[in-house]
Amino acid sequence: MNLKKYIRSIPDFPKKGILFKDITTLLKDKKAFKRAIDGLAKILKNKKIDYIVAAESRGFIFAGALSYKLGCGFVPVRKPGKLPYKTHSHKYSLEYGNDSLEIHQDAFPKNSKVLILDDLLATGGTALALIALAKKLKADIVAVVFLIELIDLKGIEKLKDYPVYSLLKF
């Protein structure tokens, strides 16, 4: 099954000049979604992972299913003001602007084996923010994984200190 055919490209979203990769077309197809989760799990089969750290909202979809499949915990990272307990925050740049993310200060114990997950690697800004937040909690970053990598934006170059895996490359 070619999963690329389940990804819809939308020009000029969320702003002019951006070619948005819409994953809702993959998510609504039960076989494609299962194949995506199975594909990510296969990439990670020999990794010891205690927690998956992922950002809202699209990262949550894959992190929840993958953490269940791998038998590890899931730590949600959210936009400011959305987590109810004490947090660490990190500001970062995106392909089309700036943002900030937060993680609970007690999200996992230090030296936990952590997988950073997001649905898409563009410039690497979100992944670097997730790594920075996990590092504040003294995590051991096992790998960084994406459903989609946009090769031309070269975000992977910012992640050269970590093993990086992408299921689909555009």
Structural features, described:
The protein is built from four helices and nine strands, in the order E-E-H-H-E-H-E-E-E-E-H-E-E. The chain is an alpha/beta fold and 170 residues long. The strands form three sheets. It has a five-stranded parallel β-sheet, with helices on both faces. The chain has a two-stranded antiparallel sheet with strand order 1-2. A hairpin with a 7-residue loop joins strand 1 (8-11) and strand 2 (19-22). The model has no long low-confidence stretch (mean pLDDT 95).
List the helices and strands and how they pair.
Blueprint: E1 8-11, E2 19-22, H1 24-27, H2 30-43, E3 51-55, H3 58-70, E4 73-77, E5 87-94, E6 97-104, E7 113-121, H4 125-136, E8 140-149, E9 164-169
Parallel strand pairs: 3-4, 3-7, 7-8, 8-9
Antiparallel strand pairs: 1-2, 5-6
Helix pairs in contact: 2-3
Radius of gyration: 15 Å
Count of DSSP E strands?
9
H-E string: EEHHEHEEEEHEE
The helical percent reads 25-40%
Outline, from the CA principal axes? globular
Rounded to the nearest angstrom, the distance between the terminal CA atoms is 17 Å
Hey, roughly how much beta strand do the residues contain?
25-35%
Report the sheet with the most strands, covering strand number, pairing sense and barrel closure. 5 strands, parallel
How many H/I helical runs? Answer: 4
Strand order of the largest sheet: 4-3-7-8-9
In round numbers, the mean pLDDT is: 95
Q: Residue ranges: pLDDT <50 for 5 or more in a row?
A: none
Helix-strand makeup class: alpha/beta
